[in-house]
Amino acid sequence: MTSRLPISPQVFAIFSALVAEKIGFHYDAADRELLGDKLSARALDAGFDSLLDYYYFLRYDPGGAAEMDALIDGLVVGETYFFRELAQLELAVSEFVAPRVAAGGRPRIWSAACSSGEEPFTLAMLLAERGLLDKVEIIASDISVRALSRAQAGVLGPRSLRSNAPPPPFAERWLQVTPDRVVVSAELRRAIDWRRINLLDASQVASLGQLDVVICRNVLIYFHDNTARWVVKNLSGALSAGGILLVGVSESLFRLGTALACEERGGVFLYRNAEP
Ligand SMILES: C[S@@+](CC[C@H](N)C(=O)[O-])C[C@H]1O[C@@H](n2cnc3c(N)ncnc32)[C@H](O)[C@@H]1O
């Protein structure tokens, strides 16, 4: 039985262009075998014995779109965990969300590449602990259908709690932890509006309307600079006046350039849209 399909430089070139077009991931020539392995696994599962045939199917067959979704699930990196880079989320809640609620607003918050949901669930816990959960709107999205269905079910593996720091004391009110799984409380799951959104698609992003806090962490690193610039432009366009964008602690917008102002607060970096 074939366990891996060969990938010629030409087939690699058309596949890397397809993947860049669909999800923005950039594969260099040096990644040919890596991409070949991922494509092979999916193509063989789908019953193909040639990557070129698989490519034609994805591009031109009516069933290609559903298979593309399955391929995307196999290509994305869903690495995430509860309480990751917690200081950023705490700052967003205490300095941006809470004051807006106090002023009578109903802030809108978007976790823009939420994977299996640990990030928006962490945010929802912080809000609930301050009595703010029903005073905000939380949208959480990802491109991966598989990741989103895990998030919506709220049943995650023990690795979702692999943060270096111990979970904050309030975690036990919201998470039911057993040796083999972590179950998120129904109240948190219900509080989040789950969507499938491709960050490359400007019209999907614009369909969310204006947002006060956009959290887009640990995904820009997978994009080529031009794609990352495009995504940041789309996200910036979705921010309300004075709204903020949070990116991962190892990501920076300086290299890409942005009209947003970079601010530092207590060691946390954020990007803020100008007030009128
Ligand atoms: C490493 S996870 C980050 C999860 C979370 N934000 C965190 O920091 O823990 C990256 C996520 O980005 C998603 N992603 C990749 N490309 C995307 C795209 N073009 N549009 C939307 N989501 C995308 C992946 O499916 C994956 O779930």
TrEMBL record:
List where the protein spans the membrane.
none
* Annotated catalysed reactions: L-glutamyl-[protein] + S-adenosyl-L-methionine = [protein]-L-glutamate 5-O-methyl ester + S-adenosyl-L-homocysteine
Q: Which GO terms describe its biological process?
A: methylation
Q: Where is the signal peptide?
A: none
Q: What InterPro entries does this protein's entry cite?
A: Bact_Chemotaxis_MeTrfase (IPR050903), CheR_C (IPR022642), CheR_MeTrfase (IPR000780), CheR_N_sf (IPR036804), SAM-dependent_MTases_sf (IPR029063)
Residues forming the CheR-type methyltransferase domain are 1-276
Q: Which UniProt keywords apply?
A: Methyltransferase, S-adenosyl-L-methionine, Transferase
Q: Which domain of life is it from?
A: Bacteria
Q: Which GO terms describe its molecular function?
A: protein-glutamate O-methyltransferase activity
Q: What EC number(s) does its UniProt record assign? A: 2.1.1.80
Stated name of the protein: protein-glutamate O-methyltransferase
